[in-house]
Amino acid sequence: MGEQDENSLLTSVNDVIDKWSKNHKSKEIHGEAFNVFSLCGVDHYELWHSKILAEFLNPGGSHGQGTQFLQSFAEMFLSGCVFSDDTSVSTEVTSYIKDLRIGRFDILIEDIAKKSVCIIENKIFAGEQEEQLNRYHEWLKTNRSGWNSCLVFLTLDGHMSATMSDKNQYLRIAYVSDTNHLSLADWIEECANSVKEIPRLCYTFVQYKDHIQKLANGDKAMSNKIIDAFNKRMAAAQSVYENYKTACVEKANSILTDLVLKELGEGWRTDGGCSFERTNYGIHYIPPEPNLKDLPVKIYVVFGATNLWQCQVALYQDISKIHLAANDGLELEYSDETWKKDFSETQSWPLWRGINTTKDKPWGMTWDGKFFDMMDADDGYRTGIISDIVESIKALHSFLKDYAK
Questions:
Q1: What is the pLDDT of residue 322?
Q2: Which tens digits make up the pLDDT trace of 36-47?
Q3: How far apart are CA 392 and CA 340, in angstroms?
Q4: 107: which strand partners?
Q5: Residue range 338-363: mean pLDDT, rounded
Q6: Which of 348, 353, 328, 350 has its CA nearest to residue 338?
Q7: Does 168 score more than 90 pLDDT?
Q8: pLDDT value of residue 22
Q9: Per-domain residue ranges for the chain?
Q10: CB atoms < 10 A from the CB of 383, how many?
Q11: How big is the CA angle at 142 (ends 139 and 144), to the nearest 5 degrees?
Q12: Residue 189: CB partners within 8 Å, gap ≥ 6?
């Protein structure tokens, strides 16, 4: 049963990734990857989306189309509500019942003359506050009694409220829907079609629709779907996670041993590869010189086997047998400023250098699934990584030869 659950989990995750990859590739081909809203950082920040939507809905908005967009929104979603040129559309409206502050409306649409009001609670990835929709519904009953009113719960996928049990007291709207239900994206498309003769305005709607579809189907949404798959099969997810770490260690061992030994040349060997031991994880590279093989100072390519954080070339000293002192007169040749040094008596790793190191990441290169994909698929990337490792090992080799004299 366990293996079946793991296979089911992996199938679900692969389906999510495959769907996302195809969608992303299609957008690149059609030039849809370029998006002003994305470039400006309008991603999961609900306040920015609320401001954009409020501007579209506002009869006095800079779009200059009066109530056109508001009326189409009301006709599509807000049965019974009637709005005019005098409708006010506001964001971040602090609300009270008598003197008690009950929250802040993301968007408030209100027409005093027509006695129509709509509250939009806008959620992208954030969760609901305690009793949030219940409080807003109570505000409508108390402060706008007798009005045509609607409480909208706007989310990426149109899911139900987790805090309001009566689904008849609010309206669910999805930014993007994968069902036949109307979504915000449908309204945005209708707005775009209605102003085709105004290209700049039309394209703004098109860009925003593309952007919210990316939010619904892109990286963050993909992660959320994968997490959902994990949540349904937690035991299988734990098993996959634990085996993934071991698989990474084994694959790193295979890649780094075979490719690096080939570049180092004749006589070099390793002593069997990876281990999870604190002072011994990674790959021990043994130089060809007989007088260096039994030294209590060894060359390693090390990596954080339990967390997969970093990969570096390092010199290991058995501090029970030897302590390399900083004043021994030994010099490390080759880009000395890229090496970290700690010759203290309690330090097992007196010299180390991050692989593919940049100044802002001095501790080494992260190695994960993306790293392995790049090593498999990109010859230039693989060659660069292996060359970096080999040159670092050669520098430590030279250091050891000076020490052994």
A1: 85
A2: 777 676 777 788
A3: 12
A4: 91, 120
A5: 80
A6: 353
A7: no
A8: 63
A9: 2-230, 239-404
A10: 12
A11: 85
A12: 205, 209
**Do 241 and 10 meet the contact criterion of CB atoms below 8 Å apart?**
no
Model pLDDT, residue 278:
44
The residue among 130, 145, 115, 133 whose CA lies nearest residue 169 is 133
Distant-in-sequence, close-in-space partners of 230: CB < 8 Å, separation ≥ 6 = 9, 237
In three state form, how does the secondary structure of 41-94 look?
Answer: CCCCCHHHHHHHHHHHHCCCCCCCCCCHHHHHHHHHHCCCCCCCCCCEEEEEEE
Q: What is the mean pLDDT of residues 384-391?
A: 91
Q: Report the relative pairing of strands 148-155 and 116-122 from DSSP bridges.
A: parallel
Q: Distance (Å, rounded) from C-alpha 172 to C-alpha 128? A: 14
**Region label for 275, one of left (φ > 0), alpha (ψ between -120 and 50) or beta (otherwise):** beta
* pLDDT beyond 90 at 142: yes
The backbone region for 235, taken as left when phi is positive above 0, alpha when psi lies in -120 to 50, beta otherwise, is: alpha
> To the nearest 10°, the Cα dihedral for 78, 148, 170, 123?
70
pLDDT above 80 for 309: no
Sheet holding 171-174, edge to edge: 88-97, 100-111, 116-122, 148-155, 171-174
**Burial class for 399, CB neighbours closer than 10 Å (0-12, 13-18, 19+):** buried
Give the burial class of 316: count Cβ atoms within 10 A of its Cβ; 0-12 exposed, 13-18 middle, 19 or more buried.
buried
**The pLDDT value given to residue 60:** 95
**For the chain, first and last CA: distance in Å?**
61
- What token pair was written down for 182? 């109307």
Average pLDDT over the chain reads 83
- pLDDT digit string, tens, across residues 92-139: 999 999 889 999 999 999 999 999 999 999 998 778 888 899 999 999
E strands of 98-180, at which residues? 100-111, 116-122, 148-155, 171-174
